[in-house]
Amino acid sequence: MVERIVEDNDIDELVLGIGSADASHSKHDPFTAGERIMMITKSLVDLDLVTYAVPIEDLERNSVWVSHVRSMSPDFDIAYSNNPLVIQLFEEAGVEVRQSPMFNREVLEGTEVRERMIKGENWQPLVPDAVAEVVDEIGGIERIQRVSETDGI
Amino acid sequence: MVERIVEDNDIDELVLGIGSADASHSKHDPFTAGERIMMITKSLVDLDLVTYAVPIEDLERNSVWVSHVRSMSPDFDIAYSNNPLVIQLFEEAGVEVRQSPMFNREVLEGTEVRERMIKGENWQPLVPDAVAEVVDEIGGIERIQRVSETDGI
Amino acid sequence: MVERIVEDNDIDELVLGIGSADASHSKHDPFTAGERIMMITKSLVDLDLVTYAVPIEDLERNSVWVSHVRSMSPDFDIAYSNNPLVIQLFEEAGVEVRQSPMFNREVLEGTEVRERMIKGENWQPLVPDAVAEVVDEIGGIERIQRVSETDGI
Amino acid sequence: MVERIVEDNDIDELVLGIGSADASHSKHDPFTAGERIMMITKSLVDLDLVTYAVPIEDLERNSVWVSHVRSMSPDFDIAYSNNPLVIQLFEEAGVEVRQSPMFNREVLEGTEVRERMIKGENWQPLVPDAVAEVVDEIGGIERIQRVSETDGI
Amino acid sequence: MVERIVEDNDIDELVLGIGSADASHSKHDPFTAGERIMMITKSLVDLDLVTYAVPIEDLERNSVWVSHVRSMSPDFDIAYSNNPLVIQLFEEAGVEVRQSPMFNREVLEGTEVRERMIKGENWQPLVPDAVAEVVDEIGGIERIQRVSETDGI
Amino acid sequence: MVERIVEDNDIDELVLGIGSADASHSKHDPFTAGERIMMITKSLVDLDLVTYAVPIEDLERNSVWVSHVRSMSPDFDIAYSNNPLVIQLFEEAGVEVRQSPMFNREVLEGTEVRERMIKGENWQPLVPDAVAEVVDEIGGIERIQRVSETDGI
């Protein structure tokens, strides 16, 4: 998706916001923000592009979310998202938003990847090689299998 | 409901607590506290009554909720609520609670209004004119339709 | 000050933001947000003006402060402040800011009023009558004298 | 369960962590941390054992949870838990974890006790006498019945 | 001080609130709540008294502080404190407060003990033996000396 | 300093933690985390080194600070710091800490740079060119001069 956005838009700098950066060890967010930074940065290392991977902690206040993102991120001109809430918030704040291109959405989306990890199915082909390596290094499969058995602490 | 409470109880000052004041742009709480203050104040402007519309942010701690409300609100003698948790908390703190009178509860309640807004149905007759005007001014229908498509950020 | 702003600017609606609304019982902020709402509303009751007194809790994040204020407040066009930080934040967010007119600043400012309250000196002439009444009703002088003896809990 | 852990493991000091200490007055956590401390301490008073009942407030960040527990608790060598997330977090932090012995899990677990309280069924035999006394003293049955009617404030 | 309170007042249960329980590794609060629980509990182990050592995290809101303390603590009838703010807050909430007896206040107070620890002077005689043992076990002197060199992170 | 650390230690990946990432628009922290990321990344762009600039928000709890840093950061083996508190916290958590080399500390430190900015003196020679450019672009001098006139909101 990043490759496609960059090609189509003559972009030379890209900020990747890592949402819910304070979450980890849950079924929905199994990995820490730091682990996700490693995954993303290693996956994009061959692109000829300045990238920033910026963790964005949840403030639980939609009304200040755009200001919060802006304060944590290098300056940006255009936002990419397919999340209707994110689009609404950026547009109310006067930020131009574009839809991200999506390929094989039903297979590549996070939900499918996580489900395969939990069931011990073949998840590696769905992610970049660099992501699979980080997941292995940190014992990510055992972690997501375990934490998905509970509702929290 | 406010008219009825005022008539029945010989009240000359009324505090309207605006709960979850930190929430907005969600299906359950589409409007900011400031927008809700405008709706309420404009709706009650013709009543001969001193009213305070006080935003109450969630502290996520039921045990301190009454103290929190009291610190944010002008002094009050009686609380009105039909929420069993709110009634329980006020009563444990020694505050007199009365049930609010309810008319046509199944139609006028927030859930019904929000559902109609989301489906593009006829919601205006369910709210005071002043509320409908504020919703229009802020583009409230587009907002609730969009944010109701997601689970959050 | 409010009278002067209203006269000079042909204003018919006024929002008064009550800062540090979560603070109370300290030397700097002896009164709760609710008590301050009462003081302000009662002081302005004779003005022919729609006023909103809106508590603004501290988020301890300057970068989202303007968004936070906007979400808690009815819509406003112009902000009045003499605080350089507040002016800077509003201007960065594109909000027009005007200086508040100040009379006898060195005597009427909060610091002087609080000092007199603590020392048992003549503070009543420095505040509107309605404020003095609220302070008396809530035992405000004893409170500020006591809490000014400590650094906190 | 405590008796069994103590017998089997030659333990002379025990820390009981009271999770979600900031929660109360909800269907899942009807009692305050202080009420739960009373229940636990009174139930264990006859054991020849130094016990600490330590409230642990939720930080909503799994990644710092173990550090948080350690900072609130006297030093401990072994953790007991059957919660897969808790086990995962302690193990990642290098803390030895053992499964708690469980008796009649399907009857004695919190869910069953709370359901009986809500339905007005016979819950007392499922808890130690000291717990039943505290629940009675604080009007716990009325509280849980009421708060289970709502989703929150 | 505890011995004196117990003797004078015919008390059989005592709750010791550990304030600023979320603070540690600072000049003012060098020890974690858990370490402080150990110090207090071990110091009082020979008293014939049921004691609870309850960590109280700061909420940074004086107006809800009493409710917060009550929710974290077993039920209590009388509060002991010499802090004017604490006395004011308890009295406004209708809780009876008594002054704690103080002996050699200028020597035994925390400030003096901490100063001696930082300067490498003779601090042990100012604290119960059990406290000195815990401080030694956790490397407390090196810690307070180091953290007192900075203003924070 | 970064050049020196990299040369001396055969390092090929570097994480730069941006502390107090939630602070901005104050005399001590005039710039947002995002602005600081830009300054750092642009300053290091010519180094042959994988660098991560990671914002670390304050949690105001020293006892969980190391876990928090670890969760936000890619994995690291050695920490560099000259802050005694940071050194103490990392060492208690078993992380190797090394002192950063410092050149001309009394001139290059943040305090000196900020003082010159506020007084309108010659600050540019004290910072990398890329930093000076970012400060200019964002109107940083006017901002720090203004916000240093106040104590906060």
UniProtKB/TrEMBL annotation, chains A, B, C, D, E, F:
Pathway: Cofactor biosynthesis; NAD(+) biosynthesis; NAD(+) from nicotinamide D-ribonucleotide: step 1/1
EC top class named in words: transferase
Keywords: ATP-binding, Cytoplasm, NAD, Nucleotide-binding, Nucleotidyltransferase, Pyridine nucleotide biosynthesis, Transferase
Keyword Ligase recorded: no
Entry keyword annotation includes Nucleotidyltransferase: yes
GO molecular function annotations of the record: ATP binding; nicotinamide-nucleotide adenylyltransferase activity
Main location as per UniProt: cytoplasm
Record GO biological process: NAD+ biosynthetic process
Regions that span the bilayer: none
Subcellular location(s) per record: Cytoplasm
InterPro entries in UniProt: Cyt_trans-like, NMN_Atrans_arc, Rossmann-like_a/b/a_fold
EC number(s) reported in the record: 2.7.7.1
GO cellular component: cytoplasm
Enzymatic reactions: beta-nicotinamide D-ribonucleotide + ATP + H(+) = diphosphate + NAD(+)
Residue span, Cytidyltransferase-like domain: 9-116
Annotated family: Belongs to the archaeal NMN adenylyltransferase family.
NCBIfam families with a match to the protein in the record: arch_NMN_Atrans, PRK01153.1
Protein's name in the database: Nicotinamide-nucleotide adenylyltransferase
Organism: Natranaeroarchaeum sulfidigenes
Taxonomic placement: Archaea, Methanobacteriati, Methanobacteriota, Stenosarchaea group, Halobacteria
